[in-house]
């Protein structure tokens, strides 16, 4: 039993939570709440990522259909979120489990200080034996600060809290070798590396199977891979599915990871990062070092530092013509970085009062994605 997960993120999509896109399926929600309470009673920490706010808002406003314009969608999300969190709270508290609401945008997790603050808040909630219920803050999310799907939000949440398992519940039985709705010979893939490229080929496009699409779930599995967290994609209508998956039963598709995959996944995550906290302008020698020799970026090769960022933030690395060459997690905050530009390692150690050469690296190669 020691190898069973102790901290789980469960994401439930709109296709399961709503009655054909019209309002919340409270019977189903109460059943999932019972399963979560069962795990909670065992001492397993659970974080829930729940869609459904817009659909509930449509019902509460008695609209004939889901709005298409952004202001109306955001208004529906604002109205429906109250019903969504109220339903989850009632369903969980009846089983003796306290819950909380967390609304996030991509911007919240892109900035290191806010990321750490959210992480600390979630850690406190889990320590208090509270189940956080997370959803995207659709009322303010737009464009570049929007996750776009809760599969990604759940994956980033799982990575942030160091989850042992990420469960994505959908209206499909898992990932198949082909579309099972059109090919009766399609077979369920029960286990595969999250970084296996062919999964994108069998997943189809974003809207093909279900509301979020299987493609976003594969991408989510790749995100959690960098934190050594397996992802399971399973049918949420299977009896007692959350408990059975936590017990290690084979249901749906399990996406696994290893050390090599974790490095690949992290670099891909960096490469697709939406917002840069700052910019490092590097000289020709540093360009060659990171692009051809695959070395870490040292302060001596950095000509200029732009922006205001914290250690661990994602920054862009550009040449003197301002062409973006790479992105990476910076080893210093902007104030420190500006002090050590064009400085050799021994000078960096002296200026910042460091004792370890390994700490005198601007961006480590394992924390960098060359574009």
From TrEMBL:
Record-listed E.C. numbers: 2.7.2.11
Catalytic activity annotation: L-glutamate + ATP = L-glutamyl 5-phosphate + ADP
SMART domains xrefs: PUA
Gene name per UniProt: proB
Any one of the GO BP annotations: L-proline biosynthetic process
Pfam families registered for this protein in UniProt: AA_kinase, PUA
Binding site for substrate: 51, 138, 150
Localization, UniProt: Cytoplasm
Its job: Catalyzes the transfer of a phosphate group to glutamate to form L-glutamate 5-phosphate.
Principal location class: cytoplasm
Record InterPro entries: AceGlu_kinase-like_sf, Asp/Glu/Uridylate_kinase, G5K_ProB, Glu/AcGlu_kinase, Glu_5kinase, Glu_5kinase/COase_Synthase, PUA, PUA-like_sf
Organism: Moraxella equi
PUA domain location: 278-362
Pathway listed: Amino-acid biosynthesis; L-proline biosynthesis; L-glutamate 5-semialdehyde from L-glutamate: step 1/2
Family statement: Belongs to the glutamate 5-kinase family.
GO cellular component labels: cytosol
Keyword Transferase on entry: yes
Protein name per its UniProtKB record: Glutamate 5-kinase
């Amino acid at each position: 039993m020691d190898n069973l997960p102790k901290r789980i993120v469960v994401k439930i999509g709109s296709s399961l939570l709503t009655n054909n896109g019209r309002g919340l399926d409270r019977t189903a929600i109460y059943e999932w709440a019972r399963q979560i309470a069962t795990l909670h009673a065992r001492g397993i920490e659970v974080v829930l990522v729940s869609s459904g706010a817009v659909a509930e808002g449509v019902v509460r406003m008695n609209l004939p259909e889901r709005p298409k314009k952004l202001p109306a969608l955001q208004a529906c999300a604002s109205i429906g979120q109250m019903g969504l969190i109220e339903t989850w709270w009632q369903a969980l508290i009846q089983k003796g489990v306290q819950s909380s609401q967390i609304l996030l945008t991509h911007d919240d997790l892109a900035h290191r200080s806010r990321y750490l603050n959210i992480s600390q808040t979630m850690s406190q909630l889990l320590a208090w034996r509270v189940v956080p219920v997370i959803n995207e803050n659709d009322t303010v999310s737009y464009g570049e600060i929007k996750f776009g799907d809760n599969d990604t939000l759940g994956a980033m949440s799982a990575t942030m809290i160091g989850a042992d398992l990420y469960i994505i519940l959908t209206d499909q039985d898992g990932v198949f070798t082909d579309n099972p709705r059109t090919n009766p010979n399609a077979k369920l893939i029960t286990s595969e590396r999250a970084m296996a490229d062919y999964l994108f080929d069998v997943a189809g496009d974003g809207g093909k199977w279900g509301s979020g699409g299987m493609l976003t779930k594969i991408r989510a599995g790749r995100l959690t891979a960098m934190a050594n967290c397996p992802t399971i994609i399973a049918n949420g209508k299977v009896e007692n599915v959350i408990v059975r998956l936590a017990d290690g039963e084979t249901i749906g598709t399990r996406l696994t990871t290893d050390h090599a995959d974790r490095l690949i996944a992290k670099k891909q995550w960096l490469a697709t990062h939406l917002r840069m906290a700052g910019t490092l302008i590097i000289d020709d020698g540093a360009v060659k070092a990171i692009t051809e020799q695959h070395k870490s970026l040292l302060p001596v090769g950095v000509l200029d530092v732009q922006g205001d960022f914290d250690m661990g933030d994602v920054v862009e690395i550009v040449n003197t013509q301002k062409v973006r060459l790479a992105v990476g997690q910076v080893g210093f905050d902007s104030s420190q970085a500006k002090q050590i530009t064009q400085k050799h390692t021994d000078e960096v150690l002296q200026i910042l009062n460091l004792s370890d050469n390994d700490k005198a690296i601007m961006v480590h190669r394992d924390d960098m994605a060359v574009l």
